[in-house]
């Protein structure tokens, strides 16, 4: 991304899109019972509350009545339908891993099979987006956390820590290309989750081959072993590699969430918050609800004179419903250089 004179002036920036992840599938209900919704009505109401606070993108996971995260697509269908009716302008983004809740002991951090994850393309009603991690990789979300981050939560359990330390992302090239194909065929936008420049380069190559004719809507997720670390150096290095036609959101973890989001707001990029990313206030004096986190970002954006996008504006910024016909159109729209011609 290029930052020229005036890039930091709010009048030259897009309105701010706030993504919220309020379901926190990796946490147990006892970690934050005041803010983790369990019943279907509570889960729908959580989306309403977040939308009214200023979030226009809902990162969606689902819980069963016993409080465990659901892997049943019927439950996803039910929650999507409820949210769509309650807040029709909200962008519904299904977490593509649906990986966190154990179906039995020993599966705390186990991703579902390739075929099962492909079924996200068949959700009814269909979501606006499904997140997609690129390239199989380690996904050790424990590595960058401190003891203070884990204290007072179920992650203090050594067995759970080991499970999450050993978690990996199964996202090989054949599966990724097929998943993009299925999602696109059903009119569902891919929301790319990228922890490093390698993943961005893989997507660029896919676009150059004409197997990924979609807008480059992405989130930088530097959240642990296998991904970038949460430092300004890695942040700006990644931003330099992202083309100008992309839409970039930042995602952090625990007490890195707010600093990264403040930088994103100042630079005209977009933000993500919610209890899936952090449950703490910056000083860890108490736990902080998803709605409080949204309200905090809205206040900061207002101080920067950067307006927060409403649902309709967020859909335009995120290019919901947009697909491209071939590699040439995809590369041009996303801001990549065109494919090389002979002797050029």
Any overview of this molecule?
This protein has 344 residues and is of the alpha/beta class. The protein has one domain: TIM Barrel (Alpha-Beta Barrel), CATH 3.20.20. 35% of the residues lie in helices and 11% in strands. It is built from 12 helices and 10 strands. An 8-stranded parallel barrel has the order 1-2-3-4-7-8-9-10, surrounded by 8 helices. It has a two-stranded antiparallel ribbon with strand order 5-6. Helix 1 links the parallel strand 1 and strand 2. Helix 1 crosses helix 2. The two termini are 24 Å apart. About 3% of the residues have low confidence.
> Compute the gyration radius: what is it?
19 Å
Domain module count: 1
Strand order within the widest beta sheet = 1-2-3-4-7-8-9-10
What's the CATH architecture?
Answer: Alpha-Beta Barrel
Shape: globular
GO molecular function: 3-keto-5-aminohexanoate cleavage activity; metal ion binding
Cofactor: Zn(2+)
Protein name: Transposase
Keywords: Metal-binding, Transferase, Zinc
Keywords:
single chain; alpha/beta; TIM Barrel; 12 helices; 10 strands
């Amino acid at each position: 991304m290029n930052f020229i004179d005036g890039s930091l002036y709010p009048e030259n920036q897009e309105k701010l899109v706030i993504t919220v992840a309020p379901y926190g599938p990796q946490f147990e209900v006892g970690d934050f019972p005041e803010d983790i919704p369990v019943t279907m009505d509570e889960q729908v109401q959580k989306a309403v509350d977040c939308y009214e606070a200023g979030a226009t993108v809902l990162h969606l996971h689902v819980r069963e009545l016993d409080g465990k995260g659901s892997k049943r697509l019927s439950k996803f269908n039910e929650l999507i339908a409820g949210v769509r009716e309650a807040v029709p302008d909200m962008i519904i983004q299904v977490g593509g891993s649906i990986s966190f809740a154990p179906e039995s002991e020993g599966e705390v951090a186990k991703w579902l099979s390739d075929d099962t994850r492909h079924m996200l393309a068949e959700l009814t009603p269909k979501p606006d987006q499904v997140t997609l991690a690129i390239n199989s990789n380690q996904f050790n979300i424990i590595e960058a956390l401190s003891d203070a981050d884990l204290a007072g939560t179920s992650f203090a359990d050594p067995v759970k820590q080991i499970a999450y330390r050993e978690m990996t992302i199964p996202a090989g090239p054949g599966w990724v290309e097929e998943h993009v194909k299925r999602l696109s065929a059903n009119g569902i936008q891919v929301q790319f989750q990228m922890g490093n420049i390698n993943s961005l380069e893989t997507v660029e190559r896919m676009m150059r081959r004409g197997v990924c004719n979609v807008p480059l809507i992405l989130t930088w997720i530097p959240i642990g072993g296998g991904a970038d670390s949460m430092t300004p150096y890695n942040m700006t290095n990644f931003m330099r590699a992202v083309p100008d036609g992309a839409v970039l959101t930042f995602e952090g973890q625990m007490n890195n969430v707010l600093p990264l989001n403040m930088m994103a707001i100042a630079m005209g990029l977009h933000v993500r918050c919610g209890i899936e990313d952090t449950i703490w206030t910056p000083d860890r004096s108490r736990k902080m609800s998803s709605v409080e986190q949204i309200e905090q970002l809205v206040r900061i954006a207002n101080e920067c004179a950067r307006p927060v996008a409403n649902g309709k504006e967020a859909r335009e910024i995120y290019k919901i419903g947009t697909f491209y016909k071939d590699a040439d159109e995809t590369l041009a729209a996303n801001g990549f250089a065109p494919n090389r011609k002979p002797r050029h």
